[in-house]
Amino acid sequence: MSLIRALSKELQARSDDSLRALFCARPDLISPGVPDFAALAARASGRVSVQRALERLNRPQMQVLETLHLCTNADTGHSASAAMLKKLINGSSMAAIERLLLSLQELALVHRAEPPHGVTSAAAKQRHYLPVGSLKDVIGIYPAGLGRSYTELVRLQPAFAQRVVQLVGELHRSGASVSPATTPMEAALSLQHWTATPESLQAILATAPDRTPALLARFGNWAMGAVPQAQRRASVVHESADVGPVDWLLARGLLVPLDAAHVELPHSVGVSLRGGFVIENFSLLPPVPHLGHTSAGLRRNAALGAIAETLRLVGEVLYAVRAQPLATLRSGGVGVREMRRLADSLRIDVHQAGVLAELCGMAGLLRLDVDSSAWVQPPQLEWLSLPRQEQWLWLVNAWLASERAPSLVGQPVNAAAPGAAGHRGPAGTTINALSAEAQRPDAPVVRRRVLEILHELTLEAAAPDGQAPVLDAAAVLERAEWAQPRMARRFSSLIRGLLMEAEMLGLIGSGALSQLGAAIAGEQPDAALGILGEHLPAALQHVLLQADLTAVAPGYLDPELSDRLLTMAAAEGQGPATIYRFSVASVRRALDAGQDAAAMLDFLRQHSATAIPQPLQYLIEDTAARHSRLRVGAAASFIQSDDEAALLDLLNAPAASGLGLVRIAPTVVISHAAPRDTAQALKGLGLSPVLEDAAAGVVRLRRTTPATGSGRPVYTAPRTAPPEADIDAQLAVLRNNEALAPGTAGGHPPAAAPGSEEATQLGLETLLKAIRLKQRVVMNVVDSMGNASRETVVPVAVNGGRVRVFDPDKEIERVLSIHRIIDVEATEELFQ
Amino acid sequence: MNDGPLIVQSDKTILLEVDHHLATEARHAIAAFAELERAPEHVHSYRLTPLGLWNARAAGLDAEKVLDTVLKYSRFPVPHSLLIDVEETMSRYGRLRLEKDPQHGLVMRTSDYPVLEEVSRAKKIAPLLGPRIDGETVVVHSSQRGQLKQLLLKIGWPAEDLAGYVDGTPHPIMLNETGWKLRPYQHLAAENFWAGGSGVVVLPCGAGKTLVGAAAMATSSTTTLILVTNTVSARQWKDELLKRTSLTEEEIGEYSGSVKEVRPVTIATYQVLTTKRGGLYPHLELVDGNDWGLIIYDEVHLLPAPIFRMTADLQARRRLGLTATLVREDGREGEVFSLIGPKRYDAPWKDIESQGYIAPADCVEVRVDLPRDERVAYAMAEDADKYRLCATSETKTRVVEELVAEHAGEQLLVIGQYIDQLDEIGERLNAPVIKGDTSVKERQRLFAAFRAGEVQTLVVSKVANFSIDLPEASVAIQVSGSFGSRQEEAQRLGRLLRPKKDGRAARFYSLVARDTLDQDFAAKRQRFLAEQGYAYRIMDAKDVGTTS
Question: Cell membrane as a keyword (chain B) (predicted)?
């Protein structure tokens, strides 16, 4: 029976709860919904879906699945039982394998099958399983890291096939216990026999050069390896005493050359090296990393310190960008020179500036202005007015959800992103901040997983009182490799950067997961807010003025106050406190910006915890006295009246407060509003103004950008399960259709509707099977004129939407597009 | 949240809020490993430097204690990277040790094999090392002890010198404490030095560094070489030693340009030792050829480069450095550390001041308006002449006269750089002028008269800047100075920081021509003095006489 049909039958027989669990674990099965169980089975057997499912398996599950794959044959229906797998998995127990097989069955990755012919009746009573059809394609050619068998290598590697007979002959003559052969296939079988048991391989290796075991150990996890001049002529005849390990192994066929630079360790050699097992090390429990400890106090100190610092620096980035937007390069991203400018103004290094700019970008605090091609701060940024703990949560949410990897900034383009985008720059160029190259679509998933793993490891580690376990990238990677071996490869390039970013955001402190990190990992952002709120001090409203012409803010200064201070003094230092230094130049800058000495001193007096030191007062007054007497300012309109009292009334009228009125002379008041608006407002106050020079003035219509919501990022963890309602709806559809066709439950499978997903999968499955077995199929094909024809052909290969077929009648090969094939029927012999 | 007085910045500075109730406690705790950088009225700032941390290590402080202190007093979370950095830096000191081996002589030992491998592969260090004895020990040529330490410090692996010292020729010296007593901090400084073997004692001007030297000599009781900056200073040392110790005139020799006596206690000037003739230093033999048990370096921060080279060869003798500041204008603090030794004692100025041993100073900047013709001359002058023009304005002379009149009856110094100006002021005030060409004898006579109160006003040029003891000067007026160097300011103020009998505050005036280069330099001076914690105010020349 077809594998898909077998799976379909099995799925149909499952309880609703079991299906529910399946949909939760593999949400792509019902998205979009499927009409019936056959389609569901087809979807579950699809390559992409299986691939996703495998990414979620842990190491023991994966090991059992790979072993099952190795000792079964879907084409012949040769299934395997837990007892058979146990023999191939070192250190396993029947119960454990049964349980794992059951879990795989629940995930619809394996299904029950008839026991193979010729097993004893006792063995036949055991449950036997087969994996889903596309598993072979997903797992690849090296399941469990083992190579292909000699027979397969002879079939697929013509160069080896040519040489193998001679090689076996030479071995035989040199006294090895390998039987001579006349055909490549025979030679392959005798090599296979020669290396079949660990004992025989040990005997062969007894005479190997010293470094051979070390070399073979490198093939322990993966059967293919790189070797210079892999196709060298190595022979046991005339072998010198100091032969190297590679030559020695090649001469005995223990390594098989694939091309000029690669060799493969054949299956039987690999299994024998593993002591006759497919899986050498099997454990149901994850490896327990050896972790150091740090004190809880240090952890909190580091986390809170990092948060305060990051928030301060983000604030400074925004301040710097407000003063001068970040220009972009023509090729995208912000160039190194521009980044260095930012770094200098923040007194930090370029890499840190890059990461900060990325953080601002992902949080929406910086936005690419299309007109000027520069990164600017969006108008009315809500972030600026939030309490600091909420600012932090905003950043954390944005970081969790972002598909960007800030730590890639500054790394070489090609090394960091081997994808299509990575090849754009010439060698030696580095990834620019806020450029497309730092885009990593899988970043949110990886971040989530890393946080979960950190949380897991922290909970597992039995840290002494007042201590917290220190987690490093190696420990996280090790756990990731156990928990999701097929996913772990994606971790390795991102993990170090992720941990660094998590440290910046205070999720990790002193190497340990902080309380905040634990709350975020446990999806309790409110708890995190609470913790942080307790520990972040409120903003200061005062500074300390000193005679050395500095103002020291002993802590986090109110942003408004700090902005104002920055207009008249330059910031110094790096850390929780800021030192503002007054100088002639800085005071002049403030005067240039329109402040006067009295206002400055007033402001300082208001916000100083101490009296203004005499030298500072002297500095401001002296500088102001020499400052230019002409003053230029901006006003959108002016109001002139000889009636001074009327102007004073106007200034005090609450209704006119929106005009931003400033009295610059007894009879002149300026307004920030346009002449028309000012006039309108004055009319509303019962005054009748004359609009001067209205015709000459150019009324410029400015494009106003509508306020676009709050922009606050809302983070939802990457969805792992579909919503309950979807599952219910899907179950209803499935059961309903089942009821409509009650006959199908146990009897003949219904014919798949042409064009349905199921039909395609079935057709493809038939084709692939026929290709493997080199058998004929009957196809209904439509030609370009729309004429249907029925053809009997032998399919050769399926690739890229086309099928290569051999037409036995005409004795020619043809290529057919898959979309022209209506259906595929196997000829009778295929079903035998 | 903690409510400590410290704020630890990520740029490795530590801010101390002075008015906090724990400030004193915290100040004492961090003084051991952080260098005080600025001490204005409300917030002092300290800096963590590798040298400071290694000094602390040498004094027996470990990283854990330092981190504990920082965390204990910090108001906000301490940047984690800084904690790691401190720990790592401190762990570097002492991983290499210079020791005396009974069999092989001077050896360098380590408990950390890779470090020894690393340093012995450094290009400059390899030639200084002899054969390897075992994995962790290597022979050092004893003549290279100093140079090795210097180079090791440069590559960041300072060695702890445990190789001990030669005894030197014994010579009995005792303190003669009749009518005075060694102050507690002087006692502590001498003790710390002796326990550490070699090193530097940092005390502010006027805090009695000479007595620390005398106390060290008494503990050592061996022949002693004292290196000082100039002849006047040499005479002062001699007088002080005669007064405070059992030493007699015959036991103390002077080795300077004019006299070359070698006695059990010899006082030599840096200048004579660094005199070069035909590519050689003829007087270096004084140092090498005698079996000194103790060498004292006065004003270590002024130690000239040849003396450093010479000191590198003297590592087997006990060395005591005395200074008011470890800050060197040439940035060679590291050489002082490796060649003379780590800091053994340091007292913040303010602490000693508040104990009443030195008088607080009141700094006043008087801004003088240049008359129109001088302003024109200034505007048209070449850049090279500008400073001289504004610094020697005639208006200043008039203001000096007014100030002198205001402080009539007080001991008063006028300090300046330009001889013409000083001569003119001397003439107008009818006061003696001490300048470069004044003979040593005459200088001593005038200083003695000033001390005795016979002369009330002295006009002195740059020569008087260093190491001359002028007690009881309560007012100083600086009319011009060379480019506002930090050193000079500290020294000039040092002149006034002597304890007054009646506890009056010393007054330090500096006259500054408004809107000129002079004012730019004054800005630097103002910053430095304010950072040192002095009261500083500015007044206008026309207000002179209206307030006091």
Answer: no
How far is residue A384's CA from residue A363's CA, in Å, rounded to a whole number?
12
A 10 A CB-CB count for B472 gives: 16
For the domain covering B184-350, report its CATH number.
3.40.50.300
Kindly list the structural domains of chain A, giving each domain's residue range(s) and its CATH number in brackets, ordered by start. Answer: 3-141 (1.10.10), 150-273 (no CATH), 292-535 (no CATH), 544-626 (no CATH), 634-718 (no CATH), 751-831 (2.30.30.100)
Phi, psi of A696, rounded to the nearest 5 degrees: -70, -30
Of A537, A549, A555, the CB nearest to B527: A549
Q: How many CB pairs under 8 A join A and B?
A: 107
Q: Which stretches of chain B drop beneath a pLDDT of 70?
A: 1-2, 205, 327, 329, 348-360, 462-472, 482-504, 545-548
Angle at the Cα of A293 (from A292 to A295), degrees rounded to 5? 165
What confidence score (pLDDT) does residue A830 get? 47
Half-sphere exposure of A463 (CA within 13 A, CB side): 18
Contact predicate B101/B166, CB 8 Å:
no
**CB contact, 8 Å: B41 with chain A?**
yes
Closest residue to A544, CB basis, from B42, B71, B83: B42
| B7: nearest CB among A546, A554, A610 | A554
pLDDT at A828: 59
Whether B3 has its CB under 8 Å from any CB of chain A: the answer is no
pLDDT for B359 = 61
The continuous run of DSSP H or E covering A665 comes out as strand A662-665
Q: What is the pLDDT of residues A466-505, one digit of tens each?
A: 888 998 888 988 998 898 888 887 788 888 899 999 999 9
Identify the residue whose tokens are 């053994």: B344
**For chain B, what are the domain ranges?**
6-92, 96-161, 184-350, 359-543
Q: Report ipTM for this prediction.
A: 0.81
Q: CB–CB of B40 and A301 under 8 A?
A: no
B9:A618 CB<8 A: no
- Angle (CA) A583-A585-A591 rounded to 5° is 105
Q: For residue B377, what are its two tokens?
A: 């001359």
Q: Is the pLDDT confidence value at A745 over 80?
A: no
Peptide bond into A32 cis (omega under 30): yes
B13 to chain A: which residues are within 8 Å by CB?
Answer: 573, 575
CB contact under 8 A, B38 and A554: no
- Partner-chain contact B10 A574, CB within 8 Å: yes
Nearest chain B residue to A309 by CA distance is: B79
Residue A416's pLDDT is: 46
Instruction: Select from B150, B130, B139 the least CA-distant residue to B101.
Output: B139
Reading the block at residue A745, the tokens are 């439950």
Percent of chain A beyond pLDDT 90? 29
CATH superfamily of B359-543: P-loop containing nucleotide triphosphate hydrolases (3.40.50.300)
Residues of chain B contacting A297 with CB distance shorter than 8 Å: 71
DSSP 3-state assignment of A172? helix
Is there a common fold for B184-350 and B359-543? yes
Q: Please state, in angstroms and rounded to a whole number, the distance separating the CA atoms of residues A756 and A763.
A: 11
Query: Is the confidence at residue A822, as pLDDT, over 90?
Result: no
Mutate to test the interface with A, among B1, B8, B10 (most CBs of A within 10 A): B10
Q: Partners of B38 in the beta sheet?
A: B45
pTM: 0.76
Question: Is there a contact between B80 and A305 if contact means CB atoms under 8 Å apart?
Answer: yes
The alpha carbon of residue B40 is apart from the nearest alpha carbon of chain A, in Å, by 6
Q: Could you give the percent of chain A with pLDDT greater than 70?
A: 91
Instruction: Judge contact between A443 and A392, C-beta under 8 A.
Output: no
Contacts of A303 in chain B (CB under 8 A): 77
Region A322-349 average pLDDT: 89
